[in-house]
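seq as requested:
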Amino acid sequence: MGIQPQRRSIFSPLELAIKRRLIGWCEPLFGRNELHAGIVREMRTKRILVIRQHDQLGDFLLSLPALRSLRHCFPEARIALVVREYFADAASLVPFVDEILVFREDASRWTWGSLRRFWRSLRSGWDLAVVLNTVSHSLTSDLLARFARARVVLGSAERVFPGSTRNFFYDLNAPMASGIRHQSERNVDILRYIGCSTDDMREELRVSDAVRTAVRGEIESLGQSAHGPLIGLHIGAGKPANRWPVERFAELANTLRERVEARILLFWGPAEEDLKEAFVSSASAGTPLIGHPTLERLAAYFQACDAVVCNDTGVLHLSAAVGTPTVGLYGPADQAEWKPVGEHVRGLSGAHGVSSIEVEDVVRAVQGLLEEKSSRKEPPADARTTFHPNH
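struct tokens:
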């Protein structure tokens, strides 16, 4: 399956119509009364619904510290999370939530049974609904919060719909700090409004023992080879401007084999077979082609690696979230706002875009991460996985 392409929301036509013509009319009819932030602490908050279904995979993973802060703030509460279908299996790895509600943007993907189960869960009674809308403002998310019948709805005060005076679907509108600020901080800022916070801005996912064991077995089945570090290369990205040239990835693979006797695993997206073919034609023989497994299996593959090199895309955050030393290759995005937090993540930017990043700079970054990992006296990858690389 792998990472599925995004689909337009089934509410998209409705969103456009309301935003452009009817939003001002809706405010007095559907607007909720504004409450004081202390109301959440005053009531017994036992059931919490978090809605983060609108954005891309990387944006979703950047919101994980907000879920951590919510769990620390309400350790006994039941926390449910509404997410898009295409990264639902990644959401199932979040250690801070108890339930996943999968929203399908494509109407054809719903069955009567799945729709009934979703609606029943959505309407099951929530004390607090939180809409994490830092990157964009989704009417779909607001409507889901409205339909959830939560006692209190919290969201950002930013990105007010045209024609309205405030984000009227919310009882609590959290003010946002101005200026450049890391996206994880912006997500946590929404929770800070009700007194929930965290200093830990790392993204965190936990792969099940069963999946981790299965993936390591698959790597071992590739055979036996020299005892070098296992390096994952993900050559894809949804945005062409974020892609480091495939030929550079091939050169990187060849160089890492020569310098550190690296064993390479290759990954790419489901619509990126052309990138794989270009890599194969440029790299020396001996790279197992893993492709695009499901997100949970991809996370397990990354966790089995000693280091991973990715473009600036969602899987970069996936690698960082399972604790793997990761090198991110950046194009137009600002690392200060978007790079995963943690000493195990290195970000490289070229002076003239991602294509101007030199192979030697990436090699040095990988070697530095491997040296740091070795200094922590972690067991070598050989103890976990060995294989004979071949196409």
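The chain has two domains: 12-192, 209-383.
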